[in-house]
Backbone:
């Protein structure tokens, strides 16, 4: 954790983190037992939540972040200004590789990603810290 690339704890978004923690309880994770909740704050200040949804055909499961992004899109928003992810365990429940790219589609490199567990905030990152030198929509701007 470096001061230049990690958002300060004082900047944490308590309501967003709480939303992710609350969502975690609604996850559908009968196979792994690993429940995850995600909460996005959009450009209008609205919060959108998602949970992981597992499937008996394992690859068909989806992540909490994907659910929250879908909810944000459904609400007509297009910008992630902050995202919180909550999952239990000693290890930080950071977004998986695929979700880092999903977040990248709608977030700026400096967008904060707050990680929590069932007891509260654990650590903050920026998207650029978790997905450096990323490929995004700006690479595909039409001439
Ligand atoms: Zn994921």
Residues:
């Amino acid at each position: 954790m470096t001061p230049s690339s990690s958002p300060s704890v004082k900047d944490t978004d308590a309501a967003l983190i709480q939303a992710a923690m609350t969502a975690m309880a609604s996850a559908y994770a009968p196979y792994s037992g690993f429940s995850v909740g995600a909460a996005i704050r959009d450009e209008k200040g609205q919060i959108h939540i998602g949970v992981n949804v597992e499937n008996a055909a394992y690859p068909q499961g989806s992540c909490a972040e994907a659910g929250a992004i879908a909810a944000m899109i459904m609400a007509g928003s297009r910008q992630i200004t902050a995202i919180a992810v909550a999952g239990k365990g000693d290890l930080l429940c950071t977004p998986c590789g695929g979700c880092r790219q999903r977040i990248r589609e709608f977030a700026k490199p400096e967008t904060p990603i707050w990680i929590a567990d069932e007891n509260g905030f654990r650590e903050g990152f920026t998207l650029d810290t978790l997905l450096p030198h990323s490929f995004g929509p700006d690479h595909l701007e039409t001439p």
